[in-house]
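Q: Convert this sequence to structure tokens.
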Amino acid sequence: MTRQYSRLGALMDPVTDRLLVVSGAVVCWRFELLPRWALAVLAARELAMVALGRYGLDHGVELRINWAGRLAVAPVMGSFFFAMIGLEGVAR
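A:
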């Protein structure tokens, strides 16, 4: 929104997203709010994203925050939100 950019912010944004997704998955797993197979697939995806990010950083790829990445995270975050407030039909 303010068009401000920092290297630390660019590195921390994906880490923060991953931690938020993992914490939502743990809550949904614990209380069986979403199918466990879907949570396992999500966990595998998040691990793959961390590995790819690390690989990219090691090989000099510059990570940039973009709208496509933000929009890709939105359905995942939304499903946790809807599951936690009891709207399983919307979350699944």
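The chain is about 75% helix and 0% strand.
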